[in-house]
């Protein structure tokens, strides 16, 4: 077979002849002094290139490489047919192309599948990983702006905000963030943590809680979300497509803008069950380190469970029909159903309640060698003030 050969020592291209041998090529050519020369290429050492798509050029060895330029595609195909198992013409792309349109369609399908997997799994993971690298000062800036935006259309209870803040400060939970608590007026029983140390508590959950240990547990849980940066990480996952565009373009300001502009999603933010469990266990540790009885965490979630079961049972006992058997469209039972369902659904949607939650909490208490705890007497007085304020407000409704 005729071809052109370059020995890598000069830029001159010479005519040559190729002979095919077992496991090697023998290349014969004449040098500048008209002396016959030969070069032998081991088939296994020919450099891999996309020979079917890019060119009819083969390269051999390290720099400076020897180069063999075949006359046409037919010669290349013939060479490949002589060494069908050789690695130099083996590539994923070439394999697909060798199957014609079928291979191309399969390749496109795999590309689309890869894109979907990246969109639903890779992008959220990358966005969450980036969120972990955000400086705490910047996270606090994001959290403050989210809080201000979110609270614009809510009624803040300034009095109880101060009370719950004092209650938290008395707990002395460990955190590298300055914790800021705001209580908002709402029948919904809920609370959630924002990035950078901001916590929003709905007045409905203060009505539900009956002991200071339970309120201490609620705040320990939310502070643990703050310490673990769970809000920023979860928001980043949920808005990963927009955030990745900001990251790839180097627009860090765009990162915060996307999150702040979507602050309306915060109240419905649902942490994964892994993050919820992490906040539960870390919350128990916060309580123990602060000499607060962690049994309050178990009692809190037992109360949540009881509330959910009680409402479900009462809904079944309050059918939307009157004594004549006719459906009632706007009676008190139907209104009660809507309010009860709204309160419970909001709580459970943002705080997933796996069936084993109380079980693993009780197990954690056993593993932690629970001791006698000396709850601060001031907590009881502060909690009583909060409950008295709550009862007073609800008695006026």
Mean pLDDT: 78
Report the strand count: 9
Q: Rg, please?
A: 35 Å
Strand arrangement within the widest β-sheet reads 4-3-2-1-6-5
Profile the largest sheet: 6 strands, antiparallel
Structural class: alpha+beta
Strand content: 5-15%
Given as residue ranges, the uncertain stretches (5+ residues, pLDDT < 50) are 314-337, 339-346
Could you say which overall geometry the principal axes of the C-alpha atoms support?
rod-shaped
Summarize the helix and strand pattern as letters: EEEEEEHHHHHEEEHHHHHHHHHH
Distance between the termini: 99 Å
Count of DSSP-assigned helices = 15
What does this structure look like?
By secondary structure, the protein is of the alpha+beta class. It folds into two domains: 88 residues, PH-domain like, CATH 2.30.29.30; 267 residues, no CATH class. 54% of the residues lie in helices and 12% in strands. Strands 4-3-2-1-6-5 form a six-stranded antiparallel β-sheet, covered by helices on one side. It has a three-stranded mixed β-sheet with strand order 7-9-8, sandwiched between helices. Strand 1 and strand 2 form a beta hairpin. The longest helix has 32 residues. The chain is rod-shaped. The termini are far apart. About 8% of the residues have low confidence.
């Amino acid at each position: 077979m005729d071809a052109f050969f370059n020995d890598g020592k000069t830029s001159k291209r010479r005519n040559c002849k190729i002979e095919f041998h077992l496991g090697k090529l023998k290349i014969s050519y004449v040098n500048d002094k008209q002396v016959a020369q030969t070069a032998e290429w081991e088939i296994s050492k020919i450099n891999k290139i996309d020979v079917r798509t890019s060119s009819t050029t083969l390269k051999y060895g390290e720099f400076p490489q020897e180069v063999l330029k075949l006359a046409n595609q037919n010669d290349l195909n013939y060479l490949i047919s002589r060494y069908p198992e050789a690695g130099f013409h083996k590539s994923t792309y070439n394999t697909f192309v060798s199957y014609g349109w079928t291979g191309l369609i399969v390749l496109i399908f795999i590309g689309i599948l890869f894109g979907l997997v990246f969109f639903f799994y890779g992008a959220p993971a990358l966005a969450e990983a980036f969120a972990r690298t955000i400086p705490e000062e910047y996270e606090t800036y994001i959290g403050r702006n989210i809080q201000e935006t979110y609270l614009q259309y809510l009624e803040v209870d300034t009095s109880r905000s101060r009370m719950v803040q004092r209650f938290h400060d008395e707990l002395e939970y460990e955190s590298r963030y300055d914790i800021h608590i705001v209580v908002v007026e709402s029948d919904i029983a809920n609370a959630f943590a924002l990035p950078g140390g901001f916590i929003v508590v709905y007045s409905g959950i203060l009505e539900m809680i009956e002991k200071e240990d339970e309120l201490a547990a609620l705040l320990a849980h939310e502070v643990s979300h703050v310490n673990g940066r769970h809000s920023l990480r979860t928001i980043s996952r949920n808005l990963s497509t927009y955030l990745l565009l900001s990251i790839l373009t180097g627009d860090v300001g765009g990162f915060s803008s996307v999150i702040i502009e979507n602050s309306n999603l915060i109240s419905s933010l649902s942490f994964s069950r892994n993050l919820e469990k992490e906040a539960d266990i870390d919350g128990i540790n916060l309580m123990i380190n602060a000499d607060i009885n962690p049994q309050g965490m178990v009692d809190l979630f037992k109360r949540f469970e009881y509330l959910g079961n009680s409402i479900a049972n009462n809904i079944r006992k309050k059918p939307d029909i009157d004594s004549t058997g006719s459906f009632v469209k706007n009676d008190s039972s139907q209104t009660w159903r809507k309010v009860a369902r709204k309160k419970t659904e909001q709580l459970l949607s943002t705080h997933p309640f796996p069936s084993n939650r109380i079980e693993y909490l009780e197990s954690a208490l056993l593993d932690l060698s629970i001791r006698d705890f000396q709850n601060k007497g001031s907590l009881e007085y502060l909690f009583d003030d909060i409950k008295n304020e709550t009862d007073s407000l609800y008695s006026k409704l």
